[in-house]
C-alpha cells in the first residue's frame, strides 16, 4: 500500500517530557540504557500505604515560558504538554506567533487534568462556597491545548481528543488529514498525562504491580519533506463484546505487517504478564529489533503512546529504514503506526 | 487504514441527516422537544441530584430520568453499569438509530462530544476512595465507565457496529466539533455514514465550578437581556445519523436536513472569557459560510451560543454584528439555552438538532425570557414563537479555552 503524493506527511520535530527528564534526548538515553528508572513513593491519603510511581523530575531552572500569564497557575499536565510542544516546534514556534504558519493543535489525553479535578471536587465537598474559581477552569480536558495555543498566539483549529492511549495514533491520523486537506500548514500532536494518587490507585485495582508515570510527547507534522515520513496509521481495532481485546490486537498487527515492512518495533509491553499478554502474543514472532519503553519508563498512558512514537521517529531519523509503533490501549482499541525513512528503505511489504 | 485513508473520494459529498435523537429537560424525543422549543417553554427546577444548599445558584434544567431504557443489544450487566450521562446518550442514540433505519455494520465511525460524560461516576469513585479507603467494591466499574470511550463503546455494542471512536472534548464546543468532524469524514468520502452527537449530565463538580466562577444565574437565564446575570446549567444528549446524500438516496431514507458548512477556530484571549469582539467567532462563521458557499444574507436564523453570561453574549453579539455586516438587521437570533440551560458538551449537538427541527417545521425557537434586549444586539431577537420561511440556519458554540465552532444547516425540501 503506497501513499499518493497528496498523502505525504512528514515529521518535522519531536518533543518529550518523561520520568527521564525534560527533553527528547533524556528520554532516548534512558531507554537506550535499558535500566528501569527509579520508583518514587507517593502517599495514599487516608491510609498508611503508598503508591509507586515514576514522575517527571522537577525542572532545575524555571523556563521563561512559565512566566506567561496563562501558565502561572497551570497544573503539571499543561507544563509537560507545553514543554514537549515547544521542543517539537523548534524555530517554527516563532512563525506561528508571527502569523506566517497556521498551526493545528491536537492534544490527546486519557486521565487529563486529574490533579486539579481532584482538588476542586475535594474543595466542593468540604465547602462549595470556598471552592476555587482559579482551579476549576484548569480541570477541563482542553486546558492544556488552550494554553499551548495562547502561548503561541495560534487561532487555528485546536482539538482535544479523549480516549485510551491508542487515541494518540488517531491524533496523528487526524493531524495528517488536516494537513492533506490544507486546513493548516503544520500540526502538532501531543499526548500528555499527569500523576495523581487517585489515578495510581485506580490502575492498581486492575493490576497491583502497575507503575504509572507522567509527562508528554509531541510530534510536529508538516507537508514539507524531512527525513522521516508518517507512513501509516492502522485502523482503530475496537475492544467490543463481539471482538475481544486479543482479536483486536492481532488484527492491528496483521494490518501493519501485511501492508508495510519495518525493521523496528516499538511496543507497549511493560513486564506485567497479564497486562501484556495480548500484545506479546500478537508480536510473538517478530524477529527484528524491538524497543519496549514502558519497561524503563512505566505506564504513561497517552504520554507513553507519544513516547513510543518519538522513539520510533528518532530511530528512523538515525538510519532505521522504517519502524512500527504498536499501541494496545487500556479499554478502547489496538492501533498502530508506521514511520519510514525518506530516500532509504521502502515501506512496501 | 486511518492514514492514508483507505476510503476517500476526490468528489465532495453532500452530507444529510437521516436520523436524529434528542433528550433535554423539555422531554424525550424529537416531537416533544420540537413542541417545547417552538413554544419557547422553559424547563428549570430546583436541583435534586446533589446538595446545592451552600451554592449561590439552586436551579438547573434537570431531566426526569427513570430506569426505563430503550431495548438494545446491551447485556443486563452492561445496563447495570450505565451512569446518568450514558443513559441520556443511549436514549438519544436509540431514537436516531431507529429513525435512520441503519443496520449493524462493520464500519461506522462514531464522533462524540462531551466535557464530563461520566463525571458522576468519577465523583462516586473519589468519595469512596477518600471516605472508605479500604473498600474497593464497585470501584473498578466506576473507573472504567467514568471514561468517555467506554460510553462510546457501549453505543457500538448496543447497536452492533464497529469503527473508529473519536471523542472531542473542547469544552462547550465539543458537540459542535464532533458533528463538524463527522461532516468532514462524510464530505471527503472517508465514511459513508457517521454516528455523531454530544452528551453531558449535570454533575456536582461542574455545577460547583460554574457557581464558583459566579457564572450561574441566581435569577433566570436571560440570553441577550441587558440585565442578564449568568447561565443556567442543563443536561441532555443529541445524536445524529449523518450520511452522504448518495447513500441516503440509495437507501430511500427520509432526509431531515443537510449540513452544509462547518468552521472551527481558537480564541487565545483568555481561558474562560471570549475576546470582547468575538474575533474567533467571526472566523468560524466566516469559515462555515465559505464552506457552505453562502453569504450572511442567506442565513434565515442564528441559534446563538447565547449562554446569558454578560461577557459571552456581548462578544457573540459583536461577532454577529461584524460578520453579518449590513445584513445583520434582517437575521433573527435566539438562544435556546433559555429553555433548557447550557448543556456543555451536548449543547452544540442539541442546538444542531434544534436548527434541523426549526428548518423542517419552518419556525423559529424564541427566547422568551428576554425582558430588555441588550442594545448591542443589532439583530432582531426572536422573543415570541414565530413561523417563517427560511433556507439556512447557523449555530454557534463556544467553550472554555477559546474553542469556537459554527455549523450551518440547510432545509431539505
Write the CATH fold name of the largest domain in chain A.
Peroxisomal Thiolase, Chain A, domain 1
H/E element order of chain A: EEHEEHHEHHEHEHEEEEHEHEHHEE
Percent helix range of chain A? 25-40%
| Coarse shape of chain A | globular
Largest sheet of chain A: 6 strands, mixed
Strand coverage percent of chain A: 15-25%
Give the name of the CATH superfamily of the largest domain in chain A.
Thiolase/Chalcone synthase
Overall body shape of chain B: globular
* SS-based class of chain B: alpha/beta
Tell me the radius of gyration of chain A.
19 Å
Strand content of chain B: 15-25%
Strand sequence of the main sheet of chain A, in spatial order? 2-1-9-7-5-6
Q: Which CATH first-tier class of the largest domain in chain A would you pick?
A: Alpha Beta
Q: pLDDT below 50 for ≥5 consecutive residues: which ranges of chain B?
A: none
Please give the domain count of chain B: 2
Mean pLDDT across residues of chain B: 97
What is the β-strand count of chain B? Answer: 15
Gyration radius of chain B, rounded: 20 Å
CATH architecture of the largest domain in chain A: 3-Layer(aba) Sandwich
According to CATH, the homologous superfamily of the largest domain in chain B is: Thiolase/Chalcone synthase
Describe the fold and architecture:
The complex is a heterodimer of chains A (349) and B (413). Chain A is α/β, with parallel strands linked by helices and 349 residues long. Chain A has helices at 24-33, 76-89, 92-97, 114-126, 143-152, 167-180, 197-204, 245-259, 273-282, 294-297, 302-317; strands at residues 10-18, 21-22, 40-43, 50-54, 103-109, 158-162, 186-193, 212-213, 215-222, 228-233, 237-238, 264-266, 289-291, 322-328, 333-341. Chain A folds into 2 domains: 5-222, Peroxisomal Thiolase, Chain A, domain 1 (3-Layer(aba) Sandwich), CATH 3.40.47; 228-341, 3-Layer(aba) Sandwich (Peroxisomal Thiolase, Chain A, domain 1), CATH 3.40.47.10. In chain A, helix 2 packs across helix 5 (143-152) and helix 8 packs parallel to helix 9. The mean pLDDT of chain A is 95. Chain B has 413 residues and is an alpha/beta fold. Chain B has 2 domains: 15-251, Peroxisomal Thiolase, Chain A, domain 1; 261-410, Thiolase/Chalcone synthase (Peroxisomal Thiolase, Chain A, domain 1, 3-Layer(aba) Sandwich), CATH 3.40.47. In chain B, the strands form 3 sheets. In chain B, strands 1, 2, 5, 6, 7, 8, 9, 10, 11, 14 and 15 form an 11-stranded mixed β-sheet that branches. The longest helix of chain B has 17 residues, at 84-100. The relative contact order of chain B is 0.19.
